[in-house]
Write a structure and sequence with these properties.
It is a single chain. Helix content is 34%, strand content 21%. It has 250 residues and is α/β, with parallel strands linked by helices. The protein has a seven-stranded mixed beta sheet, with helices on both faces. The N and C termini lie far apart (46 Å). The mean pLDDT is 95. Bound molecules: S-adenosylmethionine. The site of S-adenosylmethionine has 20 residues, from strand 2.
Length: 250
């Protein structure tokens, strides 16, 4: 899609009725698929047990079922916060998970009130990532943990046929002001932070990195000499496509 069309779409998305209409067609990832729900739950659980814990999920999209799994496995309280309400009428009728919408800035939660924070492919969409990481630190109890899987790719080309593996980091071609003009109001907005920038944000907020898993894109490794916009990054930043962090508050 051309840049002017992208900018126009972004402007249109500022109008609430247009945004509401578009939301019906959004896919948020796990989409409450039972197999994926279990996989995401097991990913979180490998870092910390859930029994007796107060758990917060940031950006559940269409999927409250991961937190419902945690409830079934003995979590005390499960809360989800999001900036867009993707819940179905049926999900809205369920009460095992506390749900809150907010403006993407200050969490609607007290200081030191949760033991675990989970997030799956939501941090890359944060408009105010430094603030959100600080908010995570604020609402965690000492000894608490944040587990977040962050997809560092440009989501615009996912699921395309034919696939565009060389365009995984296409979003990094644009200066920040233009990228924001193209995407800020759209669900496909990604903040484009690289893995080292996430490390810095977690450290600045006071977190200690306890464990980390990284996925490298072999397509980007092969294409790297042909992608001049990646030259300004370290090798690791240029090739890491998915980052899973487990950060502790002490
Ligand atoms: C790609 S979807 C992922 C949804 C779900 N975690 C999954 O994997 O299916 C990203 C979600 O993050 C939410 N989001 C974006 N910015 C947010 C913020 N500042 N705080 C909480 N959620 C946010 C979006 O509304 C959306 O529901």
């Amino acid at each position: 899609m051309s840049v002017p069309v992208e900018v126009l779409q972004n402007i249109l998305m500022r109008f609430r009725p247009v945004a509401k209409f578009a939301q019906q067609y959004h896919s948020t990832g796990v989409n409450a698929d039972p197999g994926q729900v279990r996989r995401v739950f097991e990913l979180y659980r490998q870092f910390a047990p859930v029994a007796g814990k107060d758990i917060l999920e940031i950006g559940p999209g269409h999927t409250l079922e991961v937190l419902e799994c945690a409830k079934t496995e003995g979590a005390r309280n499960c809360t989800a916060i999001d900036v867009v309400d993707y819940r179905s009428p049926e999900q809205k009728g369920r009460t095992r998970v506390i749900y809150a919408l907010y403006d993407g800035k200050t969490f609607p939660l007290e200081d030191a009130c949760v033991d675990l924070i989970w997030s799956y492919t939501a941090f890359e969409h944060l408009r105010y990532p430094a603030m959100t990481v600080q908010e995570c630190f604020r609402v965690l109890r000492p000894g608490g943990m944040l587990v977040s899987l962050i997809d560092l790719g440009d989501h615009s080309f996912y699921g395309m046929n034919p696939p565009h593996p060389d365009k995984l980091f296409h979003c990094l071609r644009y200066p920040e002001w233009l990228w924001n003009l193209m995407r800020w109001n759209r669900s496909s907005y990604v903040n484009r932070l690289r893995q080292s920038e996430w490390h810095t944000l977690f450290k600045q907020a006071g977190f200690i990195l306890r464990a980390e898993e990284k996925m490298v894109s072999e397509d980007i490794v092969r294409q790297l000499p042909l992608l001049p916009y990646l030259r300004r990054y370290s090798y690791e930043d240029a090739v890491t496509s998915v980052l899973t962090v487990c950060c502790g508050k002490f």
